[in-house]
Design goal:
The complex is a heterodimer of chains A (352) and B (496). By secondary structure, chain A is α+β, with helices and mostly antiparallel strands. Helices cover 28% and strands 26% of the residues of chain A. Chain A is built from 11 helices and 16 strands. In chain A, the strands form 4 sheets. In chain A, strands 3, 4, 5, 6, 7 and 8 form a 6-stranded antiparallel beta sheet that branches. A 4-stranded antiparallel beta sheet of chain A has the order 10-11-9-12. Chain A starts with a helix and ends in a 15-residue tail after the last helix. Chain B has helices at residues 13-25, 35-38, 62-75, 127-134, 153-159, 166-169, 203-207, 241-253, 266-276, 296-312, 324-335, 337-344, 360-374, 402-419, 438-441, 444-457, 472-481, and strands spanning 31-32, 55-57, 79-82, 99-102, 109-113, 118-121, 139-140, 176-182, 188-192, 216-223, 225-226, 230-238, 260-265, 286-294, 317-320, 347-350, 378-383, 388-395. In chain B, the strands form 4 sheets. In chain B, strands 15-12-14-13-17-18-16 form a 7-stranded antiparallel beta sheet, sandwiched between helices. A 5-stranded antiparallel beta sheet of chain B has the order 5-6-10-8-9. A 4-stranded mixed beta sheet of chain B has the order 1-2-4-3. The chains are: A alpha+beta (352), B alpha+beta (496). The complex binds flavin-adenine dinucleotide. The site of flavin-adenine dinucleotide (FAD) has 36 residues of chain B, from strand 3, helix 5 and strand 10.
Chain lengths: 352, 496
């Protein structure tokens, strides 16, 4: 528990003076994402501690350096959880890093993403100003939604100091169904669930099986199971945990790993490699030796986009390149927050 | 309808060029300049602010919108977008020297894609029309503002509108995937994606709630949800508003997130009851409407739990709607609360603060004290689950000084919302109305950041100028009048 904001503000101030690029660094668990960090390290993990949490308000406010594990433990004690089930990717993951990378776990299509839980933040912009946006209430439309803009911006717009998140009760019951089938059938099944009133909170396809996790009240889960039928996996939590944390053997095949986003009902993509489908088919992982350009082309043809995740050859663009007018807007936005371009330079896109 | 405008006098050469340019771009009937034709566009649902625009345009294609924007950019003429004009903060209030761009002709549902749970629609489509079209697939669009039969999806995005079901299903920002937006320079951008995440910054979030300040929304892709198997509503009566507020906290503390959790106080109950005969208990000090949805068995399970919690927390009466017709009727009372209050008072002023839920008793007590002090009755309608208050101040604009008193009362309520850790607007937006209250909620650093962000989209400040974010000078003037916590806000700015 300590407030390091003054020291952090000073470091940003000095960096502006000397035009030194800064690498905002939380728990170091997600350094592998995006382009290699450059610049002087701005340590963010010491700025830590839960500031306010009243389970009745369904809101938690914590300093950005607070370990994700500490936050989840506090929520768990009150029977609550982070709605978006974020992956940690390491024991030292911080709240700030999680929000900056905007990553969400298996529940994302059914319970919302990191950005959906974001209610407000305190940040340092590239003028070393300490600013507050949003708040600690569920509904707030005063001013532009800068807090959500920070989610997934990879720290390129400012240094997150505090975040307020919406939290929810843990479902009272959960049950996982498993069914053996081909990928095409799995996609059909998972997509059909979207237009049926079934309490699904995760669905994936892995090694020839579709896994469907039901969650809700005892009765809701029981009735959904009765309607859907199928085999139940006892103690499925470790499976979902290793999917969330990318600890399944699939993720460590030694081949380059790509994150592919498509519409969930998209038919199996004819790109050579091994596939694992999460998010009910909306987020697909591809382990493949195919050239990045071919992968992007194949995915774009299906209306999707690609992130080079791990183990890929050095690529000019790690995230999907943006159309020129949109990229120009990104550059202008970046400058509006960080006029000297000191924060996490080039981490997301070169020249941003 | 007049196309040419002989009645308009003293146009500047720029205005002349603008009107001629617009007439060349658009078909006859899509450019209005006659004051009689402009009249319907002079205000939104906050009718205390009225102004005629220079010209109204009613394009029907994206290409026409782009051409209008290019022309306005070239001539440096400001543009105000308008959906259905049901906004409650003066967001669509026209500018005397500007163009009012109505999206009223963009009314097509472009496609419904049930396997991917999405629908793509034009911005002028009414909120309810989306759910009606999706019903064939057993799906619906979740955010349901009370104005849903009239308001447009474009307006919903621009305001980040909520509804009585947003406690469980979220606001507009949680329920859209992609926008097509025309910039002030006439460029067409795709924001977000049909996929769940989009590459780049989350501009979708930024555009949502941007009140027509960043771009013109010309297409919206929304998420669709499966209609729950069953929805059931419980009505609970209380002899004390504070007890009703505590019951709300108790339900949430029990780990139950109702689909909707709404509260009305005595005056609102009586007005609604007289208007739609919803079967509300007229003598109650407050009622809660608690909707539970899901599978049959789940709803039954929750009804038992919630009824118990309500009784335990002092409800004097707990009723479950006997059938779908009664459920609809219970909601009709709530959704008609504003017009119902409109029937019992010549005018009413709708406030929209949000507060941390546990502050509800304190805030209600203070509003009631002020109501006595100002001699103005207040009917309270809340999205109680979200802590979003809608105090409706009853007044008569024809009585000298009453509007001014009402506005002052309203400002104090909003200031109180900020003081207890909340916000000046939960869902109706800042618009013209709460521009000064922005100075209470934000310091100059944040406001300057907002302006910088706006300039990244619209460097010349031609999109809906004067709304949503006050200038620092305006705040300095405002701050000189309103000393907050014994401190001047924005002390670094010179006073004048
Ligand atoms: C009786 C009543 C009940 C209401 N209940 C609710 C409620 O429950 N919840 C709630 O959130 N609101 C409610 N409202 C407020 C209002 O209905 C919403 O704000 C609604 O979203 C406005 O939509 P509109 O189409 O009428 O927009 P308008 O009023 O026409 O415009 C609103 C703002 O959006 C901008 N805008 C409109 N269309 C576009 C576009 N295509 N591109 C860019 N900018 C655009 C305008 O410039 C303006 O700033 C209520 C209003 C009334 C009168």
């Amino acid at each position: 528990m300590s407030d390091m904001s003054t020291a952090m503000q000073q470091q940003v101030h000095d960096a502006i003076g000397s035009r030194t690029p800064l690498h905002i660094c939380g728990g170091n668990s997600k350094n592998f994402l995006g382009h290699a960090p450059q610049g002087e390290v701005l340590p963010a993990s010491m700025h830590s501690g839960i500031i306010e949490y009243d389970p009745r308000e369904l809101v938690l406010t914590a300093r950005a350096g607070t370990p994700l594990a500490e936050i989840e433990a506090a929520l768990s004690k009150a029977g609550q959880m982070l709605t978006f089930e974020p992956p940690h990717f390491g024991a030292h993951a911080t709240l700030g890093g999680t929000i900056a990378c905007g990553l969400s776990g298996p529940r994302r299509p059914y319970a919302g993403a990191a950005r959906d839980a974001m209610l407000g933040c305190k940040l340092l912009n590239g003028r070393a100003e300490l600013l507050r946006f949003g708040g600690q209430v569920m509904k707030n439309v005063a001013g532009y939604d800068v807090s959500r803009l920070m989610v997934g911006a990879y720290g390129t717009l400012g240094v997150l100091l505090e975040c307020s998140l919406k939290v929810l009760p843990r479902p009272a019951a959960s049950l996982t169904l498993i069914h053996e089938c081909a990928q095409e059938e799995a996609i059909g099944r998972m997509s059909q669930l979207l237009s049926q009133p079934v309490p699904v909170d995760a669905a994936c396809y892995h090694t020839g099986h579709v896994y469907i996790r039901l969650a809700g009240s005892e009765q809701a889960v029981k009735q959904a199971h009765a309607n859907l039928g199928g085999a139940v996996i006892e103690n499925a939590a470790p499976f979902w945990q290793s999917l969330r944390e990318q600890q399944l053997p699939f993720f460590h095949s030694g081949k380059p790993l790509y994150r592919v986003l498509v519409k969930p009902a998209t038919a199996p993509l004819a790109i050579p490699g091994a596939w694992l489908l999460d998010w009910g088919g909306a987020q697909r992982w591809l382990a493949s030796d195919a050239p990045v350009a071919d992968i992007r082309k194949g995915v774009a043809a299906a209306g999707g986009h690609v992130t080079c995740w791990r183990g890929h050859a050095p690529a000019a663009e790690i995230f999907e390149p943006l159309p020129a007018p949109l990229f120009k807007l990104h550059q202008r936005l970046k400058l509006s927050f960080d006029p000297h371009g000191i924060f996490n330079r080039g981490r997301m896109y070169p020249h941003l | 309808m007049t196309v040419a405008a002989p009645a308009i006098e003293r146009r500047t050469p720029t205005q002349e060029a603008l009107c001629n340019g617009l007439l060349a771009l658009l078909p006859g009937g899509a450019v209005l300049t006659d004051p009689e034709d402009l009249r319907p566009f002079e205000c939104d649902a906050l009718a205390v602010y009225r102004r005629l625009p220079l010209v109204v345009v009613l394009p029907e294609t994206i290409a026409q919108v782009q051409a209008i924007m290019r022309l306005c950019h070239e001539l440096q003429v400001p543009v105000v977008a308008r959906g259905a004009g049901t906004g409650l903060s003066g967001g669509a209030l026209p500018l005397r020297d500007g163009v009012l761009l109505s999206l009223a002709k963009f009314t097509r549902i472009l496609h419904i894609d049930a396997p991917n749970a999405l629908a793509t629609v034009q911005p002028g489509v009414r909120n309810l029309a989306i759910s009606e079209a999706a019903a064939a697939h057993g799906m619906y669009y979740a955010p349901d503002p009370s104005s849903q039969i009239a308001c447009t999806i474009g307006g919903n995005v621009a305001e980040n509108s909520g509804g009585v079901h947003c406690l469980k299903y979220g606001l507009t920002v949680h329920n859209i995937l992609m926008l097509k937006v025309v910039t002030m320079e006439g460029e067409l951008l795709s924001i977000g994606a049909e996929t769940l995440d989009a590459p780049g910054y989350d501009l979708l979030a930024l555009l949502t709630g941007s009140e027509g300040m960043l771009g013109i929304i010309v297409e919206v892709t929304v998420k669709l949800l499966a209609r729950p198997q069953r929805a059931q509503v419980i009505l609970a009566a209380f002899d004390d508003v504070v007890k009703a507020g505590e019951a709300v906290g108790a339900i949430i503390a029990a780990g139950i997130i109702p689909a909707g959790l709404e509260m009305m106080d005595k005056l609102a109950i009586q007005a609604a009851e007289d208007f739609v005969h919803a079967g509300y208990p007229r003598d109650a000090a407050a009622i809660l409407l608690c909707e539970l949805d899901g599978s049959n068995a789940e709803v039954s399970e929750y009804i038992v739990a919630v009824r118990h919690l309500l009784t335990h927390n002092g409800a004097t009466e707990v009723r479950t709607a006997v059938d779908e017709a009664e459920r609809q009727l219970f909601w009709k009372g709530r959704k008609s609360a504003f017009p119902a209050v409109g029937r019992i008072s010549p005018d009413y002023y709708c406030m929209d603060g949000t507060i941390p839920r546990h502050r509800l008793p304190q805030v209600l007590r203070q509003i009631s004290l002020w109501s006595g002090e100002y001699g103005l009755a207040v009917a309270n309608v809340f999205h109680a689950g979200d802590g979003n208050l809608h105090p409706l101040i009853l007044f008569d604009a024809n009585r000298p000084g009453e509007l001014a008193r009402t506005e002052e009362f309203g400002r104090r309520i909003l200031q109180l919302c900020v003081e207890v850790g909340g916000t000046i607007t939960g869902e109706h937006g800042v618009g013209m109305e709460k521009i000064d209250q922005m100075c209470i909620q934000f310091q100059s650093g944040e406001l300057a950041q907002f302006h910088a962000l706006k300039a990244a989209f619209d460097p010349d400040g031609l999109l809906n100028p004067g709304k949503a974010v006050p200038t620092l000078h305006r705040c300095a003037e405002f701050g000189a009048m309103h000393v907050h916590h014994g401190q001047l806000s924005h002390p670094e700015l010179e006073r004048f």
